[in-house]
Amino acid sequence: MKTERTTVNRLPERGRYDRETLYAILDEAPICTVAFVREGTPVAIPTIHARVDDQLYLHGSTASTMLSSLAAGAEACVTATILDGLVVARSVFHHSMNYRSAIVLGRARDVADDDEKRNAMRAVVEHVLAGRWAEARKPNRREIAATRIVAIPIAEASSKVRTGPPIDDEEDLALPIWAGVVPTRLTPSAPVPATKAIALPASVRNLV
Amino acid sequence: MKTERTTVNRLPERGRYDRETLYAILDEAPICTVAFVREGTPVAIPTIHARVDDQLYLHGSTASTMLSSLAAGAEACVTATILDGLVVARSVFHHSMNYRSAIVLGRARDVADDDEKRNAMRAVVEHVLAGRWAEARKPNRREIAATRIVAIPIAEASSKVRTGPPIDDEEDLALPIWAGVVPTRLTPSAPVPATKAIALPASVRNLV
Q: Which residue range is the domain that position B45 belongs to?
Protein backbone atom coordinates (compact mmCIF):
# COMPACT_ATOMS: atom_id res chain seq x y z
CA MET A 1 0.00 0.00 0.00
CA LYS A 2 2.90 2.34 0.75
CA THR A 3 4.08 4.21 -2.31
CA GLU A 4 6.01 7.42 -2.72
CA ARG A 5 2.69 9.25 -3.06
CA THR A 6 1.25 7.82 0.16
CA THR A 7 4.36 8.10 2.30
CA VAL A 8 3.80 10.41 5.25
CA ASN A 9 6.35 13.22 4.78
CA ARG A 10 5.48 15.49 7.66
CA LEU A 11 5.99 13.83 11.08
CA PRO A 12 6.86 10.46 9.50
CA GLU A 13 6.77 8.72 12.90
CA ARG A 14 2.98 9.07 12.74
CA GLY A 15 2.72 7.12 9.47
CA ARG A 16 1.22 3.62 9.48
CA TYR A 17 1.22 1.31 6.50
CA ASP A 18 -0.61 -1.81 7.66
CA ARG A 19 -4.08 -2.77 6.45
CA GLU A 20 -5.41 -3.37 9.96
CA THR A 21 -4.94 0.26 11.00
CA LEU A 22 -6.21 1.58 7.68
CA TYR A 23 -9.31 -0.62 7.63
CA ALA A 24 -10.18 0.23 11.25
CA ILE A 25 -10.13 3.96 10.42
CA LEU A 26 -12.15 3.57 7.22
CA ASP A 27 -14.68 1.38 9.04
CA GLU A 28 -15.10 3.70 12.04
CA ALA A 29 -15.24 7.04 10.22
CA PRO A 30 -18.88 7.67 9.26
CA ILE A 31 -17.92 9.90 6.34
CA CYS A 32 -14.95 10.64 4.12
CA THR A 33 -13.88 13.43 1.80
CA VAL A 34 -13.37 12.59 -1.87
CA ALA A 35 -10.95 14.84 -3.75
CA PHE A 36 -10.48 14.79 -7.51
CA VAL A 37 -9.40 17.16 -10.24
CA ARG A 38 -12.05 18.77 -12.47
CA GLU A 39 -10.81 20.97 -15.30
CA GLY A 40 -7.54 21.50 -13.45
CA THR A 41 -9.23 22.51 -10.21
CA PRO A 42 -9.19 20.45 -7.01
CA VAL A 43 -12.68 19.50 -5.84
CA ALA A 44 -13.29 17.91 -2.43
CA ILE A 45 -16.70 16.61 -1.42
CA PRO A 46 -17.77 14.93 1.84
CA THR A 47 -19.70 11.71 1.36
CA ILE A 48 -20.54 8.34 2.91
CA HIS A 49 -18.40 5.34 2.07
CA ALA A 50 -18.15 1.67 2.92
CA ARG A 51 -15.35 -0.86 2.74
CA VAL A 52 -15.77 -4.48 1.67
CA ASP A 53 -12.47 -6.37 1.80
CA ASP A 54 -10.05 -4.30 -0.29
CA GLN A 55 -12.72 -2.31 -2.11
CA LEU A 56 -13.82 1.16 -1.03
CA TYR A 57 -17.36 1.88 -2.23
CA LEU A 58 -18.87 5.31 -2.83
CA HIS A 59 -22.49 5.70 -3.77
CA GLY A 60 -24.96 8.33 -4.79
CA SER A 61 -27.36 9.40 -7.44
CA THR A 62 -26.67 8.75 -11.11
CA ALA A 63 -26.94 12.57 -11.31
CA SER A 64 -23.85 13.03 -9.08
CA THR A 65 -21.13 14.83 -11.01
CA MET A 66 -18.54 13.62 -8.48
CA LEU A 67 -19.41 9.98 -9.16
CA SER A 68 -19.60 10.47 -12.91
CA SER A 69 -16.17 12.15 -12.85
CA LEU A 70 -14.74 9.18 -10.94
CA ALA A 71 -16.53 6.67 -13.17
CA ALA A 72 -15.04 8.46 -16.19
CA GLY A 73 -11.53 7.80 -14.86
CA ALA A 74 -10.63 10.79 -12.67
CA GLU A 75 -8.14 9.82 -9.99
CA ALA A 76 -9.52 10.06 -6.45
CA CYS A 77 -7.91 10.88 -3.14
CA VAL A 78 -10.18 9.70 -0.34
CA THR A 79 -9.46 10.81 3.21
CA ALA A 80 -11.23 9.83 6.40
CA THR A 81 -10.41 11.42 9.73
CA ILE A 82 -11.43 10.55 13.28
CA LEU A 83 -10.80 13.16 15.94
CA ASP A 84 -9.79 11.51 19.22
CA GLY A 85 -8.93 14.49 21.37
CA LEU A 86 -7.62 17.99 21.88
CA VAL A 87 -3.99 18.04 22.96
CA VAL A 88 -3.58 20.95 25.35
CA ALA A 89 0.06 21.91 25.86
CA ARG A 90 1.74 24.42 28.14
CA SER A 91 2.91 26.37 25.10
CA VAL A 92 0.62 27.54 22.31
CA PHE A 93 3.12 26.10 19.86
CA HIS A 94 2.76 22.51 21.03
CA HIS A 95 -1.04 22.36 21.03
CA SER A 96 -2.19 19.57 18.79
CA MET A 97 -4.92 17.02 18.23
CA ASN A 98 -5.09 13.29 18.64
CA TYR A 99 -6.50 11.79 15.45
CA ARG A 100 -6.49 8.84 13.12
CA SER A 101 -6.63 9.60 9.42
CA ALA A 102 -6.63 7.38 6.35
CA ILE A 103 -5.83 8.25 2.77
CA VAL A 104 -6.59 6.09 -0.28
CA LEU A 105 -5.44 7.05 -3.77
CA GLY A 106 -6.84 5.38 -6.84
CA ARG A 107 -9.08 5.25 -9.85
CA ALA A 108 -12.61 4.01 -9.47
CA ARG A 109 -14.41 1.22 -11.25
CA ASP A 110 -18.04 1.91 -12.18
CA VAL A 111 -20.04 -0.95 -10.66
CA ALA A 112 -22.55 -2.22 -13.21
CA ASP A 113 -23.55 -5.57 -11.75
CA ASP A 114 -26.83 -5.38 -9.80
CA ASP A 115 -25.72 -7.92 -7.19
CA GLU A 116 -22.51 -6.03 -6.47
CA LYS A 117 -24.52 -2.78 -6.36
CA ARG A 118 -26.96 -4.29 -3.88
CA ASN A 119 -24.10 -5.61 -1.74
CA ALA A 120 -22.45 -2.19 -1.77
CA MET A 121 -25.72 -0.50 -0.75
CA ARG A 122 -25.96 -2.99 2.06
CA ALA A 123 -22.38 -2.26 3.12
CA VAL A 124 -23.04 1.49 3.11
CA VAL A 125 -26.14 1.33 5.30
CA GLU A 126 -24.53 -1.24 7.62
CA HIS A 127 -21.41 0.94 7.86
CA VAL A 128 -23.44 3.80 9.27
CA LEU A 129 -25.92 1.76 11.32
CA ALA A 130 -25.08 -1.90 11.91
CA GLY A 131 -28.13 -4.15 11.63
CA ARG A 132 -30.22 -1.69 9.63
CA TRP A 133 -30.26 -3.67 6.36
CA ALA A 134 -32.33 -6.44 7.92
CA GLU A 135 -34.86 -3.96 9.34
CA ALA A 136 -35.49 -1.60 6.44
CA ARG A 137 -37.31 -1.97 3.16
CA LYS A 138 -34.70 -3.23 0.68
CA PRO A 139 -33.84 -1.37 -2.53
CA ASN A 140 -36.04 -2.22 -5.50
CA ARG A 141 -34.96 -2.38 -9.13
CA ARG A 142 -35.85 1.25 -9.77
CA GLU A 143 -33.78 2.40 -6.78
CA ILE A 144 -30.82 0.24 -7.76
CA ALA A 145 -30.98 1.70 -11.28
CA ALA A 146 -31.07 5.24 -9.83
CA THR A 147 -27.97 4.59 -7.70
CA ARG A 148 -24.45 4.88 -8.99
CA ILE A 149 -21.82 2.86 -7.17
CA VAL A 150 -18.11 3.16 -7.79
CA ALA A 151 -15.39 1.00 -6.24
CA ILE A 152 -11.85 2.16 -5.54
CA PRO A 153 -9.35 -0.65 -4.99
CA ILE A 154 -7.44 -0.11 -1.74
CA ALA A 155 -3.98 -0.57 -3.23
CA GLU A 156 -2.20 2.75 -2.62
CA ALA A 157 -2.92 4.03 0.87
CA SER A 158 -1.62 5.03 4.27
CA SER A 159 -2.73 6.10 7.72
CA LYS A 160 -1.51 8.77 10.09
CA VAL A 161 -2.08 8.55 13.82
CA ARG A 162 -1.33 10.78 16.80
CA THR A 163 -1.99 9.53 20.32
CA GLY A 164 -0.89 10.45 23.80
CA PRO A 165 -0.18 13.53 25.89
CA PRO A 166 1.20 16.90 24.78
CA ILE A 167 4.94 17.07 24.18
CA ASP A 168 6.17 20.35 25.58
CA ASP A 169 9.69 21.70 25.53
CA GLU A 170 11.81 20.66 28.50
CA GLU A 171 12.10 24.25 29.74
CA ASP A 172 8.31 24.67 29.84
CA LEU A 173 7.59 21.62 32.01
CA ALA A 174 7.81 23.51 35.27
CA LEU A 175 5.49 26.32 34.19
CA PRO A 176 2.32 26.56 36.30
CA ILE A 177 0.15 25.89 33.25
CA TRP A 178 -2.27 22.98 32.97
CA ALA A 179 -1.58 20.52 30.16
CA GLY A 180 -3.31 17.35 29.12
CA VAL A 181 -5.71 15.79 26.66
CA VAL A 182 -9.45 16.32 26.31
CA PRO A 183 -10.75 13.16 24.58
CA THR A 184 -13.44 13.71 21.96
CA ARG A 185 -15.89 11.32 20.35
CA LEU A 186 -18.80 11.57 17.94
CA THR A 187 -21.68 10.74 20.24
CA PRO A 188 -25.27 9.86 19.35
CA SER A 189 -28.06 11.28 21.51
CA ALA A 190 -31.73 10.46 22.05
CA PRO A 191 -33.42 9.37 18.78
CA VAL A 192 -36.14 11.65 17.37
CA PRO A 193 -38.82 9.37 15.93
CA ALA A 194 -40.66 10.19 12.71
CA THR A 195 -43.07 7.31 13.37
CA LYS A 196 -45.53 6.73 16.18
CA ALA A 197 -46.19 3.55 18.13
CA ILE A 198 -43.22 1.71 16.69
CA ALA A 199 -40.55 0.58 19.13
CA LEU A 200 -36.93 1.57 18.59
CA PRO A 201 -35.27 -1.03 16.37
CA ALA A 202 -32.24 -3.01 17.52
CA SER A 203 -29.88 -1.09 15.21
CA VAL A 204 -30.70 2.24 16.86
CA ARG A 205 -30.87 0.75 20.37
CA ASN A 206 -27.39 -0.71 19.93
CA LEU A 207 -26.05 2.62 18.74
CA VAL A 208 -27.34 4.89 21.51
CA MET B 1 -19.24 33.90 -3.06
CA LYS B 2 -21.43 31.82 -5.35
CA THR B 3 -19.72 31.03 -8.64
CA GLU B 4 -20.28 28.31 -11.19
CA ARG B 5 -17.62 26.26 -9.43
CA THR B 6 -19.20 26.59 -6.00
CA THR B 7 -22.82 26.10 -7.05
CA VAL B 8 -24.33 23.00 -5.46
CA ASN B 9 -25.32 20.79 -8.39
CA ARG B 10 -26.59 17.72 -6.60
CA LEU B 11 -29.66 18.44 -4.41
CA PRO B 12 -29.48 22.20 -5.12
CA GLU B 13 -32.13 22.92 -2.47
CA ARG B 14 -29.46 22.16 0.13
CA GLY B 15 -27.11 24.87 -1.16
CA ARG B 16 -26.57 28.01 0.91
CA TYR B 17 -24.67 31.02 -0.28
CA ASP B 18 -24.72 33.44 2.65
CA ARG B 19 -21.64 34.26 4.71
CA GLU B 20 -23.44 33.73 8.02
CA THR B 21 -24.05 30.03 7.32
CA LEU B 22 -20.58 29.52 5.85
CA TYR B 23 -18.78 31.24 8.72
CA ALA B 24 -20.77 29.34 11.35
CA ILE B 25 -19.71 26.02 9.77
CA LEU B 26 -16.06 27.02 9.42
CA ASP B 27 -16.01 28.29 13.00
CA GLU B 28 -17.65 25.20 14.52
CA ALA B 29 -15.80 22.49 12.58
CA PRO B 30 -12.59 21.70 14.51
CA ILE B 31 -10.79 20.50 11.39
CA CYS B 32 -11.04 20.77 7.63
CA THR B 33 -9.67 18.88 4.64
CA VAL B 34 -7.41 20.75 2.23
CA ALA B 35 -7.35 19.43 -1.33
CA PHE B 36 -4.89 20.57 -3.99
CA VAL B 37 -3.28 19.18 -7.11
CA ARG B 38 0.32 17.93 -6.97
CA GLU B 39 1.85 16.76 -10.24
CA GLY B 40 -1.63 16.17 -11.65
CA THR B 41 -2.76 14.09 -8.69
CA PRO B 42 -5.41 15.19 -6.18
CA VAL B 43 -4.09 15.34 -2.62
CA ALA B 44 -6.39 15.86 0.37
CA ILE B 45 -5.04 16.38 3.87
CA PRO B 46 -6.94 16.95 7.12
CA THR B 47 -5.71 19.92 9.13
CA ILE B 48 -6.72 22.59 11.63
CA HIS B 49 -7.92 25.95 10.35
CA ALA B 50 -9.16 29.25 11.71
CA ARG B 51 -11.21 32.06 10.23
CA VAL B 52 -10.58 35.75 10.87
CA ASP B 53 -13.10 37.93 9.03
CA ASP B 54 -12.91 36.84 5.39
CA GLN B 55 -9.54 35.10 5.68
CA LEU B 56 -9.16 31.38 6.21
CA TYR B 57 -5.84 30.57 7.88
CA LEU B 58 -3.97 27.27 7.68
CA HIS B 59 -0.83 26.70 9.67
CA GLY B 60 1.88 24.16 10.15
CA SER B 61 5.55 23.56 10.00
CA THR B 62 7.71 25.27 7.41
CA ALA B 63 8.53 21.65 6.45
CA SER B 64 4.90 20.98 5.40
CA THR B 65 4.74 20.13 1.70
CA MET B 66 1.03 20.93 1.69
CA LEU B 67 1.65 24.47 2.92
CA SER B 68 4.60 25.01 0.61
CA SER B 69 2.48 23.83 -2.37
CA LEU B 70 -0.24 26.32 -1.42
CA ALA B 71 2.27 29.09 -0.78
CA ALA B 72 3.74 28.41 -4.23
CA GLY B 73 0.36 29.10 -5.82
CA ALA B 74 -1.49 25.77 -5.97
CA GLU B 75 -5.23 26.27 -5.89
CA ALA B 76 -6.90 24.90 -2.75
CA CYS B 77 -10.31 23.42 -2.12
CA VAL B 78 -11.00 23.48 1.60
CA THR B 79 -13.97 21.54 2.96
CA ALA B 80 -15.27 21.39 6.52
CA THR B 81 -18.08 19.06 7.52
CA ILE B 82 -20.13 18.79 10.71
CA LEU B 83 -22.20 15.66 11.15
CA ASP B 84 -25.50 16.46 12.89
CA GLY B 85 -27.30 13.14 12.76
CA LEU B 86 -28.08 9.82 11.15
CA VAL B 87 -31.28 9.94 9.12
CA VAL B 88 -32.97 6.56 9.50
CA ALA B 89 -35.63 5.96 6.85
CA ARG B 90 -38.12 3.14 6.33
CA SER B 91 -36.41 2.26 3.06
CA VAL B 92 -32.68 1.63 2.71
CA PHE B 93 -32.71 3.98 -0.26
CA HIS B 94 -33.77 7.05 1.73
CA HIS B 95 -31.28 6.71 4.56
CA SER B 96 -29.19 9.85 4.80
CA MET B 97 -27.29 12.08 7.17
CA ASN B 98 -27.95 15.51 8.56
CA TYR B 99 -24.87 17.62 8.05
CA ARG B 100 -23.49 21.08 7.43
CA SER B 101 -20.57 21.35 5.03
CA ALA B 102 -18.59 24.31 3.75
CA ILE B 103 -16.36 24.56 0.71
CA VAL B 104 -13.88 27.36 -0.01
CA LEU B 105 -11.94 27.55 -3.28
CA GLY B 106 -8.97 29.80 -3.68
CA ARG B 107 -5.29 30.48 -3.85
CA ALA B 108 -3.38 31.10 -0.67
CA ARG B 109 -1.23 34.02 0.33
CA ASP B 110 1.95 33.18 2.25
CA VAL B 111 1.78 35.23 5.45
CA ALA B 112 5.18 36.83 6.07
CA ASP B 113 4.34 39.51 8.63
CA ASP B 114 5.10 38.38 12.19
CA ASP B 115 2.12 40.23 13.67
CA GLU B 116 -0.30 38.62 11.23
CA LYS B 117 1.35 35.24 11.88
CA ARG B 118 0.95 35.70 15.63
CA ASN B 119 -2.69 36.73 15.19
CA ALA B 120 -3.34 33.68 13.03
CA MET B 121 -1.70 31.39 15.61
CA ARG B 122 -3.92 32.95 18.22
CA ALA B 123 -6.99 32.41 16.02
CA VAL B 124 -6.07 28.76 15.47
CA VAL B 125 -5.66 27.94 19.16
CA GLU B 126 -8.77 29.95 20.10
CA HIS B 127 -10.74 28.20 17.34
CA VAL B 128 -10.07 24.83 18.92
CA LEU B 129 -10.19 25.91 22.58
CA ALA B 130 -11.64 29.34 23.34
CA GLY B 131 -9.71 31.19 26.03
CA ARG B 132 -6.53 29.13 25.66
CA TRP B 133 -4.34 31.89 24.21
CA ALA B 134 -4.47 33.86 27.47
CA GLU B 135 -3.54 30.79 29.52
CA ALA B 136 -0.69 29.25 27.55
CA ARG B 137 2.90 30.25 26.97
CA LYS B 138 2.85 32.47 23.86
CA PRO B 139 4.88 31.68 20.74
CA ASN B 140 8.41 33.05 20.79
CA ARG B 141 10.36 34.30 17.79
CA ARG B 142 11.89 30.92 17.05
CA GLU B 143 8.45 29.26 17.05
CA ILE B 144 6.93 31.96 14.85
CA ALA B 145 9.81 31.50 12.42
CA ALA B 146 9.26 27.73 12.41
CA THR B 147 5.56 28.15 11.61
CA ARG B 148 4.21 28.67 8.13
CA ILE B 149 0.88 30.42 7.86
CA VAL B 150 -1.09 30.78 4.66
CA ALA B 151 -4.30 32.74 4.21
CA ILE B 152 -7.02 31.89 1.70
CA PRO B 153 -9.44 34.73 0.97
CA ILE B 154 -13.04 33.57 1.41
CA ALA B 155 -14.28 34.83 -1.93
CA GLU B 156 -15.49 31.74 -3.78
CA ALA B 157 -17.42 29.47 -1.45
CA SER B 158 -20.66 27.75 -0.59
CA SER B 159 -22.34 25.65 2.08
CA LYS B 160 -24.58 22.60 1.90
CA VAL B 161 -26.98 21.72 4.68
CA ARG B 162 -29.41 18.87 5.34
CA THR B 163 -31.72 19.04 8.33
CA GLY B 164 -34.90 17.34 9.42
CA PRO B 165 -36.53 13.91 9.34
CA PRO B 166 -36.20 11.18 6.71
CA ILE B 167 -38.23 11.64 3.55
CA ASP B 168 -39.67 8.27 2.60
CA ASP B 169 -41.79 7.45 -0.40
CA GLU B 170 -45.52 7.90 0.16
CA GLU B 171 -46.19 4.18 -0.26
CA ASP B 172 -43.69 3.28 2.48
CA LEU B 173 -45.18 5.50 5.18
CA ALA B 174 -47.54 2.83 6.50
CA LEU B 175 -44.84 0.15 6.78
CA PRO B 176 -44.27 -1.05 10.36
CA ILE B 177 -40.65 0.15 10.25
CA TRP B 178 -39.20 2.70 12.67
CA ALA B 179 -37.90 5.90 11.10
CA GLY B 180 -36.37 9.01 12.61
CA VAL B 181 -33.17 10.86 13.30
CA VAL B 182 -30.34 9.98 15.69
CA PRO B 183 -28.61 13.31 16.46
CA THR B 184 -24.81 13.15 16.67
CA ARG B 185 -22.31 15.56 18.14
CA LEU B 186 -18.57 15.62 18.73
CA THR B 187 -18.45 15.44 22.51
CA PRO B 188 -15.52 16.07 24.85
CA SER B 189 -15.09 13.77 27.84
CA ALA B 190 -13.16 13.96 31.11
CA PRO B 191 -9.78 15.67 30.64
CA VAL B 192 -6.65 13.55 31.16
CA PRO B 193 -4.10 15.79 32.89
CA ALA B 194 -0.39 15.66 32.05
CA THR B 195 0.36 17.92 35.00
CA LYS B 196 -0.15 17.38 38.71
CA ALA B 197 -1.57 19.80 41.28
CA ILE B 198 -2.71 22.33 38.69
CA ALA B 199 -6.42 23.06 38.54
CA LEU B 200 -8.31 22.72 35.25
CA PRO B 201 -8.09 26.03 33.38
CA ALA B 202 -11.19 27.97 32.39
CA SER B 203 -10.81 27.06 28.70
CA VAL B 204 -11.06 23.33 29.42
CA ARG B 205 -13.72 23.78 32.11
CA ASN B 206 -15.90 25.73 29.67
CA LEU B 207 -15.48 23.04 27.03
CA VAL B 208 -16.38 19.97 29.07
A: 4-167+175-207
